[in-house]
Each structure stands twice: as C-alpha cells, then as structure tokens.
Design goal:
about 375 residues, alpha/beta, TIM Barrel, 8-stranded parallel beta sheet, two-stranded antiparallel sheet, about 10% strand, binds (2S)-2-hydroxyoctanoic acid
Length: about 375
C-alpha cells in the first residue's frame, strides 16, 4: 500500500526490498567512495531556512516557470537510464505520472522505450542527449527527438567517459539480455543488439571523450529547440554554456556517479546563480537554472529555489516510485514531494514561488 510510504526515504527502503540487489545498486550507487553521493544529501541538511512569520499563508500557489512555460510545481523528472529495471512499464509509467503531476519528464537517451513511444503518452518530454563519436548518429537521433515533439534538449557533459561505480563492478551488473535501448539501436533489428555486459561496452564505446564547448555551439545550431547543458558545477562553465548558445544550465554532478569528491550541487548553486544574474541567453531571455542531486524533502526544494534555481530535478526517487508501484508509485513520489514543498513554503511564509528568496537560505 503506497499510503504507508510517507516519505521518499520510505520509498527507497521499500524499493531496496523489492528490487534485485544489482538493479537497486545500479540506481542507488555513486562513483568510488560515494563521497559526492553522500554529500549531495548532507549539504542540504547543513543549510538552515530562516523562515518569515505572519504572512497570511492560507493560500499557496506552487506553479513555476521554466523556459516560456508554466509547470504545476518546480519539480521535474531527471533523466535516468533503464526504467524497466524497476518496472515493466518503464518510462511509459514515468511519463504518465509526470503528466498527471503537471510537470516535465526529461527522458534519458538510455531509455527502454523509444522517444516516440514516450512522447505519445502526451507528457511534456525533454530529451537528454549524449554526444556520440559519430555526429551523424547524434544528428539522426536529434531529428527523431524533434519529430516526436520533445520540447528541449539536455546535453549531458559530465560523462566523457563513465565513472567508476564499484557496486556495479562487485555485483557484475549487466543489463538483462535483449534489454531494449530504443533510442540507440535500430528497433527492427534485434539481431544487431548487443546483450548483457556487451550493451554497456557498446554504449561506452559510442561516447565521445573529445566533446568540447564547440559541441554545445554545434548542438544549438542543429536545432531550434532550447538546449540545456547538464553536469555543471562551476560558475565559469555556466557562463560559457550560455555564451555557446545554451538556453539554460543544469547544476548536476550526475548524482555522484561520475567524479567522486565533486562538490555537492546545493553548495555551488548560490555562486553560479549569482554569476548568471543579469545575463541573458542566446534568445535574449533570462537563462533557466535547474539543479539536481540529493533532493528528497520539500525543504530541499525551497533551499534550491532560494539559492537561485527555477526548479529541481528528481532522479532516484522516481525509480523508487516505479519499483513500488509503476505509474501510481511515481505519482506518489511526486505528490509526496509536492505536499512537502507546500508545507515548507507555508512554514517559511511563502505564498508563491516568487516569495522563495535568497534571504531564507543560510549555509
Ligand atoms: C550500462 C550503460 O547516465 C548512468 C547513466 C549512464 C550509464 C550507462 C551504463 O547510469 O549514470
């Protein structure tokens, strides 16, 4: 019964009982000593909220703006790989739940269902893209993404190669045989699909370790869709992303899965937000600033917004939701965080998102 899971932490515990250990660990783990993974969370707990009182908070409005559109809450679905490891309905269930929650799903290149199938749910879908050595393959994927109706491209830049995830090595993690990577491989050619550990090697070999700032410019020139650069933890890189044509940036360390001892995202967010203040993106609009990493409580969302984010991305808890109950489980995870955000805003004296201001945030 999902009702017994009253926090995202409960959902994680339940998912650990439900999922096979290698699958749970694939999702839950970080790189090497998992220092960044741990600190993403702990950094939130070190920040205090200096709440305001006596503001008549009887009515609240959680709607937020990202790009030129409104979402029902400043919480979006982060891109994560292989949702069928958690539930057979995979990304279709996630997309339907995101739609019900009035928010955006960022679909991973490494989804089990194709971008066309996921977009057909009617959800608002952005597409997360890796840059392949073969730019022709990247370009072909972009065409599919545009044709499917995705609203933005999220270019992941913190994975020129994959991080060292020791739980996966110890568990000898392998994707199940014939696991679909529907955005990568010809769907009608099952015989050409690598299986098991071959799939990981196949993907790793596609990644281009030579990616550079020129590729952000290239991507922005290839598409009319807004481009986000995801995986930034420094102010100079955030500014460079805008200079190269990005519409926005996503402050992220890949959930602690790439460079261990990278800083916690909430720790670097205020400085990056300050460095973008007053700047516009290539289209002349204010850049959109998003973040992920360790968001588990409504108070975390308030802290991220007070530090300058327009919205946060929720990653692993979506997978715990899937494991606990497919579409209903993801909807439950999103709703838990929405309710907690509403509570945190109320207790902070904020009636709407615009009232979540930097003075609330004390590191
Ligand atoms: C088996 C291939 O972003 C992640 C992904 C990329 C992993 C590819 C693994 O899990 O962090």
């Amino acid at each position: 019964d999902l009702g017994q899971l009253i926090s995202l932490f409960d959902m994680e515990e339940k998912a650990a009982e439900i999922l096979a250990k290698p699958s749970f660990d694939y999702y839950a783990s970080g790189a090497m000593n998992e220092i960044t993974l741990t600190q993403n969370r702990e950094a939130f707990d070190r920040i205090s909220l200096h709440y305001r009182v006596l503001r008549d908070v009887s009515q609240r409005d959680l709607r937020a703006r990202v790009l030129d559109r409104e979402i029902d809450m400043p919480i979006m679905v982060a891109p994560t790989a292989f949702h069928q490891l958690a539930h057979p309905d995979g990304e279709l269930a996630t997309a339907r739940a995101a739609k019900r929650a009035g928010t955006v799903m960022i679909l991973s290149t490494l989804s089990n269902f194709s971008v066309e199938e996921v977009a057909a749910t009617g959800a608002s879908v952005w597409f997360q893209l890796y840059m392949y050595k073969d730019r022709g393959l990247t370009r072909a994927l972009l065409d599919r993404v545009v044709e499917a109706g995705c609203e933005a491209i999220v270019f992941t830049v913190d994975a020129p190669v994959l991080g060292k995830r020791e739980r996966d090595i110890r568990n000898r993690f392998e994707c199940p045989p014939h696991f679909n990577m529907a955005n990568l491989l010809p769907e009608d050619d099952a015989a050409s699909r690598p299986t098991g550990s071959g799939l990981a090697a196949y993907f790793a070999d596609l990644l281009d370790a030579a990616i550079s700032w020129r590729d952000v410019r290239w991507l922005a020139e290839q598409t009319k869709l807004p481009v986000f650069v995801k995986g930034i933890v420094r102010a100079d890189d955030a500014v460079a992303a805008l200079d190269m044509g990005a519409s926005g940036v996503i402050i992220s360390n890949h959930g602690g899965r790439q460079l261990d001892t990278a800083p916690a995202t909430i720790d670097v967010l205020p400085r990056i937000a300050q460095s973008l203040a007053g700047r516009s993106n290539a289209s002349g609009y204010l850049p959109t600033l998003l973040m992920d990493g360790g968001v588990r409580r409504g108070t975390d969302v308030v802290k991220a917004l007070a530090a300058g984010a327009d919205a946060v991305l929720l990653g692993r808890p979506i997978l715990w939701g899937l494991a606990c109950g497919g579409e209903a489980g993801v909807a439950h995870a999103l709703n838990l965080l929405r309710e907690e955000l509403d509570l945190a805003m109320t207790l902070c004296g904020c009636r709407h998102i615009g009232e979540i201001t930097p003075d609330l945030f004390h590191a």
